[in-house]
Specification:
The chain is an alpha+beta fold. The chain has helices spanning 6-34, 41-67, 99-114, and strands at residues 70-77, 81-88, 91-98. The chain is 61% helix and 20% strand. It has a three-stranded antiparallel beta sheet. This is YhjD.
Length: 119
């Protein structure tokens, strides 16, 4: 059983997912820059704006973690699972995440930052 309240666990998980979203968007940005689009500027602006918002949110997440002395570390990764260590108020917990779940959550966040945040 976890000692970490749900609200703080959600913030901790953002510290895991948001950097991954930035990595994917950064790779996509490189592809857009190299692709032979006739009008590439709208695509670039869409991705760059999403990245700026994610970076601001990630800054706030990291600030919250520092302020509350919470640490998140990836400790192991294999084909199916990634294990993270959470240090929370003097307690260490290890949580294992199913890699397809991580991928689906990153995809969901990408959709949110690219499209659904306008709704």
């Amino acid at each position: 059983m976890t000692r970490i309240p749900e609200v703080e666990r959600d913030i901790i998980e953002k510290a895991i997912y948001l950097p991954m979203v930035l990595i994917v968007l950064n790779r996509d940005l490189t592809v857009f820059k190299q692709s032979p689009f006739k009008l590439r500027k709208p695509y670039l602006e869409l991705v760059e704006d999403a990245m700026k918002i994610i970076q601001k949110e990630l800054y706030e997440v990291k600030r919250f973690l520092r302020k509350n002395q919470i640490q998140v570390k990836e400790i192991d990764r294999d084909d199916s699972f990634t294990m993270f260590s959470f240090l929370y108020k003097g307690y260490e917990e290890q949580h294992s995440y199913f890699n397809p779940r991580i991928r689906n959550k990153v995809q969901e966040l990408m959709e949110h930052y690219l499209f659904k945040r306008f709704v």
